[in-house]
Amino acid sequence: MKTIIIEDEKPAARRLGRMLDSLDLTVSTMLHSVEEAIDWFQTNEHPDLIFLDIQLSDGLSFEIFDVIEVHSAIIFTTAFDEYALKAFKLNSIDYLLKPIDDEDLEHSVNKYRKLFKSANEPSKIALDFEDIKKLLVNPLEREYKKRFTAKVGQHLKIINAEDVESFYSENKGTYAATKDGRNYLLDTTLEQLEEELKPQMFFRVSRKFFVNIDHIKDIVSYTNSRLQIKLKNNPDHEIIVSREKVKDFKLWLE
């Protein structure tokens, strides 16, 4: 099984190599830049598996694939936060957040071995380079949905995202509660909204609710270490921050 590491920080590359060696996975080559990787791929047989740092000293590692068609499986190594990574639509094996943990690495390697043990050749990777680059250059500057439409009788109502106090699910429907105290049924789901809402503005406090930070009137302690949110213009909605979300919610408020 041929394995290479592409990582611009040489101590980190050597450390990862030692960790892989302890898992009986021998690294044949270490590359440290986009330019070096392109030169290497043009003259060498492509490996079965690449451990690929996303941000290299001379650019994003995806630039390698603008020049070279790589058929190897990839495990990404990155310091980018998990939120940005959720937006990736990649046919890779896994990703590892730095600093790389021994247990996480072993899990990724075992996952690769299980998937490719009987394969004749590694799967081709399919990357949407431009979208990923936009996310990584500045993931918080990406475009989010600014308005929604709801059917009201025979009319379509345009709802600006900034005017929505909360999005919530009820009786298998998804609703927008607006600052004028109205509730509009939307043709979407909370799961879809998770990819579309600006994270600085909206936070999913529970399975049922997203709240808009600009429309929170009050936050009070609630039972079982939870929090209760009161909105400015929709005070009747019982919005509870689930216990597992409290820590992240407090960080979001800051």
Question: Gist?
Answer:
It is built from eight helices and 17 strands. The protein has helices at 10-21, 34-43, 64-67, 82-86, 102-116, 129-137, 190-196, 246-253, and strands at 3-6, 27-31, 49-53, 55-56, 59-60, 73-78, 94-97, 147-152, 155-160, 164-170, 173-178, 183-186, 202-204, 209-212, 216-222, 226-231, 239-241.
Structure description:
This protein has a five-stranded parallel sheet. A five-stranded antiparallel sheet has the order 12-11-10-14-13, with no helix packed on it. The chain has a three-stranded antiparallel sheet with strand order 15-16-17, with no helix packed on it. With 254 residues, the protein is of the alpha/beta class. α1 (10-21) links the parallel β1 and β2 (27-31). It has helices spanning 10-21, 34-43, 64-67, 82-86, 102-116, 129-137, 190-196, 246-253, and strands at 3-6, 27-31, 49-53, 55-56, 59-60, 73-78, 94-97, 147-152, 155-160, 164-170, 173-178, 183-186, 202-204, 209-212, 216-222, 226-231, 239-241. The chain starts with a strand and ends with a helix. Residues 122-127 have low confidence and may be disordered. The protein contains eight helices and 17 strands. The longest helix has 15 residues, at 102-116.
